[in-house]
Write a structure and sequence with these properties.
This protein is α+β, with helices and mostly antiparallel strands and 354 residues long. It has helices at residues 3-15, 21-36, 215-271, 286-289, 312-319, 326-330, 348-353; strands spanning 42-48, 53-55, 65-72, 75-81, 93-95, 101-103, 112-120, 125-136, 143-147, 152-156, 164-169, 172-173, 181-185, 191-199, 204-212.
Length: 354
């Protein structure tokens, strides 16, 4: 029991006989409520992630002190005894002569309850104090970005535990936001002085920017954006119309050719086997369209008649002359030649005389 509570209890005992019954009951309830309540002597200490921290004992005089204990949670982490004059090794926890605990390179798992217990040279408990250590990451410098077309600005940070962003536009405070980014929309303002501040329990950073958005710049950006989108749309529509017209022309030509082919077939059935020229097809020469003569007969000039039997041998000798090249036959122009007549066979006697 603490000295103050003991004094209050003794004073209450002296005053109770002199009070009325109602006052005695009220005073007893008050005293019991104070005795049952836990003393709120925990100090909250904020530490920066990655840095060192010192847990000091304010207002305590280290007179006739011999032993100092520091505990983390329910585990003893370090002890300093003056009579033995120990040497503090270079470890994570160090205790100085005045009882200060130094924690090196704070990490998130270092967040916990720390308790110091101090004894004097007689072994009596001189002090007990508890600290609640909380670790936070330092906030980064804010970054201010804006868009003159949408007339918006954004203040954001990349690092920081539980940050609070405060935005000031032309000296006017905007509602703080407990997050890593804050947005604001400005209307009909050409020049804006923006101040963005990010802070938490262990750090504070700020940035100031002058935003200038001219009306010409706004119109130019707007026109470029609109024209760029409309130009792509127009190009797409032109290509689509061109493709549709091309398909229509191809389908129309195909339908016309089919109709002409059908008409030509009907005309051929009515008039006879006269060839029908279909538009688009390559015309053929009469010589190429005429069937080739039989291999046993050669073409002759028009008006030529077979010689009499007496002159047949001479005629056979003349026939043995080399025929004209094939290319001359195919390159012959004019009307097609008549087919040769079948020559009668000569009598055997005439062949022997010759």
């Amino acid at each position: 029991m603490e000295p103050r509570q003991e004094e209050l209890r003794i004073t209450t005992r002296k005053l109770i006989p002199k009070m009325s019954l109602a006052c005695q009951i009220f005073l007893l309830i008050f005293v019991f409520s104070i005795q049952g309540a836990a003393p709120a002597n925990d100090d909250i200490v904020w530490g920066t992630l990655g840095q060192d921290i010192n847990l000091d004992i304010p207002g305590f005089q280290m007179i006739n002190i011999d032993d100092i204990h520091w505990e983390k949670g329910k585990k003893k982490v370090v002890r300093f005894q003056i009579s033995n004059k120990p040497k503090n090794p270079d470890e994570k926890y160090n205790v100085s002569v005045n009882g200060t605990l130094k924690i090196k390179h704070l990490m998130l798992e270092d967040s916990d309850t720390y308790k110091v217990v101090i004894y004097d040279k007689d072994g009596k408990n001189a002090l007990e104090k508890t600290f609640q250590l909380k670790i936070q990451e330092k906030v980064s410098t804010p970054n201010i970005d804006w868009n003159c077309i949408n007339k918006t600005l954004v203040c954001k940070i990349s690092n920081g535990t539980d940050p609070e962003l405060k935005l000031y536009v032309n000296g006017t405070s905007i509602k703080p936001v407990s997050s890593k980014f804050s947005t604001y929309r400005f209307i009909n303002k050409r020049k804006i002085l923006v101040n963005c501040t990010a802070e938490n329990k262990v750090s504070k950073e700020s940035d100031v920017k002058m935003i200038t958005c001219s009306e010409k710049g706004l119109d130019l950006y707007f026109i470029i954006g609109v024209c760029g989108g409309s130009t792509l749309f127009v190009i797409f529509m032109v290509l689509l119309i061109f493709y549709i017209n091309k398909r229509k022309k191809q389908n129309s030509r195909k339908n016309d050719e089919e109709l002409e082919i059908r008409a030509c077939r009907l005309t051929t059935k009515k008039r006879g086997p006269k060839p029908c020229q279909v538009p688009g097809s390559t015309p053929q020469s009469p010589a190429a369209s005429r069937p080739p003569p039989p291999p046993s007969h050669r073409p002759q000039a028009p008006g030529h008649r077979p010689p009499p039997p007496g002159h047949r041998a001479q005629h056979n000798q003349q026939r043995k002359a080399p025929p004209p090249p094939a290319t001359q036959v195919y390159q012959q122009k004019g009307p097609p030649l008549p087919r040769p007549r079948v020559q009668p066979k000569a009598p055997r006697g005439a062949t022997g005389n010759s």
